[in-house]
C-alpha cells in the first residue's frame, strides 16, 4: 500500500501553470508538492516545435527549449516535485490524490493537467483509424509525399498546413465556416501555398477506404448540401482541444468542452480546489496566461490556507 504524504498544497501538472504555482508557493513557504506524470516538466511545451515569440521574457527556438529553462530554474531553486508520477484517482472532497508511488493528501489542490486535441465523430473513421491523426508532426515519416485533408480553421490547423505543404503531395483544408480563427498572417501564408486548397462552409461527412487504409473523404457543403468526394491518404483533425478533466468529472463544474470552470481567482466550484492553464474555462490559451494562472492560484491558495487557520 502506498505511503500517505501530507501537504498544504498539491499541484497536479508540471506545465507552465503548475511550475508558476510551485514557484510562488515555494516563495510563500507553503508545504507543497508538484506531481507530473512525465519524466520532464513542461507539459504541452514538450510537443511545441515552433518558435516562442509571444512570451515576454526572451526568444526560444521551441517549446522544449523553454521547458529546459523552466526545469533548470525549478532544480536550482529546489522546487518540491515528483516526476514520472501518473495519477490514477482524485477525491476532491478529501483532497486525496493517488499516484503510482505515493498517496498524497492536501488542504488545497491546484489542477493544471492541460488539454488534448479534440476528436470528431466521423462516419467510417473507425475502419481507417490508422490514417486519422491528431498530430501531424508525430507522423512525419508516414505523411511524406502523401495527400492530406486537414479539418479546422484555427492557428493549429493552418500551422499544420504550413508544415505539411513542403512535405506532402497535396493538402486540402476544410473549414466549417467562411471565417478563420487563425492569425491573419498565418492565413495569408497558407493561401500563398501552391499545393494547398481551401474549402470553406463545409464539413467532412464520412471517410472510406480498403484494408484499413484511407482512400476517400466525403465533404458536404453546409449551405447547398452538395457533396464532394476527395481522394486522400490521411485525415488530420485540428478542431481545438478538450480538457484533461476525466479524473475530476462529476466533482467539479465543467464546461461542455470538458474544461474546468473557474472564477478570476482560479477558484473552482469545490472549496479549496483551484485550476488554471489551458484546461480551464473561460479559455485563453497561451504560455503567458498559464503562468499568470499559476501565480493567481498560488496566492488564492495561500489566502485560503490562512483563512482556514484563523
Description:
It contains six helices and 19 strands. It has 310 residues and is α/β, with parallel strands linked by helices. The protein has two domains: 183 residues, FAD/NAD(P)-binding domain; 119 residues, FAD/NAD(P)-binding domain. Helix 1 packs parallel to helix 6. The model has no long low-confidence stretch (mean pLDDT 94).
Low-pLDDT ranges:
none
Domain count, please report it: 2
N- and C-termini, Cα separation: 35 Å
- Tell how many strands the DSSP assignment holds: 19
Output the structural class.
alpha/beta
| Mean model confidence by pLDDT | 94
Key features?
310 residues, alpha/beta, FAD/NAD(P)-binding domain, seven-stranded mixed β-sheet, five-stranded parallel β-sheet, 6 helices, 19 strands, 23% helix, elongated
Set out the fold topology.
Blueprint: E1 3-12, H1 16-27, E2 32-35, H2 63-77, E3 81-82, E4 87-91, E5 96-99, E6 102-111, E7 115-117, E8 132-133, H3 140-143, E9 147-151, H4 155-164, E10 170-174, H5 184-191, E11 196-199, E12 202-210, E13 213-221, E14 227-231, E15 234-237, E16 241-243, E17 260-261, E18 273-275, E19 280-281, H6 287-309
Parallel strand pairs: 1-2, 1-6, 2-3, 6-18, 8-15, 9-10, 9-15, 10-11, 17-19
Antiparallel strand pairs: 4-5, 5-6, 7-16, 12-13, 13-14
Amino acid at each position: 500500500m502506498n505511503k500517505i504524504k501530507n501537504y498544504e498544497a498539491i499541484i497536479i501538472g508540471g506545465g507552465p501553470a503548475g511550475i508558476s504555482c510551485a514557484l510562488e508557493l515555494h516563495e510563500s513557504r507553503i508545504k507543497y508538492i508538484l506531481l507530473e506524470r512525465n519524466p520532464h516538466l513542461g507539459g504541452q511545451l514538450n510537443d511545441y516545435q515552433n518558435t516562442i515569440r509571444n512570451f515576454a521574457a526572451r526568444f526560444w527556438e521551441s517549446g522544449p527549449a523553454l521547458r529546459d529553462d523552466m526545469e533548470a530554474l525549478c532544480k536550482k531553486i529546489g522546487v518540491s516535485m515528483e516526476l514520472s508520477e501518473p495519477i490514477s484517482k482524485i477525491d476532491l472532497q478529501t483532497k486525496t490524490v493517488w499516484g503510482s508511488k505515493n498517496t498524497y493528501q492536501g488542504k488545497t489542490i491546484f489542477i493544471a493537467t492541460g488539454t488534448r486535441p479534440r476528436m470528431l465523430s466521423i462516419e467510417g473513421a473507425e475502419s481507417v483509424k490508422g490514417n486519422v491523426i491528431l498530430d501531424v508532426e508525430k507522423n512525419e515519416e508516414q505523411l511524406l509525399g502523401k495527400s492530406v485533408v486537414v479539418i479546422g480553421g484555427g492557428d493549429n490547423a493552418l500551422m499544420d498546413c504550413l508544415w505539411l505543404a513542403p512535405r506532402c503531395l497535396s493538402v486540402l483544408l476544410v473549414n466549417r465556416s467562411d471565417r478563420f480563427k487563425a492569425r491573419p498572417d498565418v492565413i495569408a501564408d497558407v493561401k500563398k501555398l501552391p499545393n494547398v486548397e481551401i474549402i470553406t462552409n463545409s464539413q467532412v461527412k464520412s471517410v472510406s477506404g480498403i484494408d484499413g487504409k484511407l482512400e476517400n473523404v466525403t465533404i458536404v457543403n453546409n449551405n447547398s448540401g452538395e457533396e464532394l468526394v476527395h481522394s486522400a491518404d490521411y485525415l488530420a483533425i485540428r478542431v481545438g482541444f478538450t480538457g484533461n478533466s476525466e479524473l475530476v468529472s462529476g466533482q467539479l463544474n465543467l464546461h461542455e468542452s470538458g474544461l474546468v470552470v473557474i472564477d478570476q481567482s482560479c477558484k473552482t466550484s469545490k472549496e479549496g480546489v483551484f485550476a488554471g492553464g489551458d484546461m480551464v474555462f473561460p479559455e485563453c490559451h497561451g504560455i503567458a496566461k498559464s503562468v499568470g494562472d499559476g501565480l493567481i492560484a498560488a496566492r488564492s491558495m495561500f489566502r485560503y490556507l490562512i483563512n482556514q487557520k484563523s
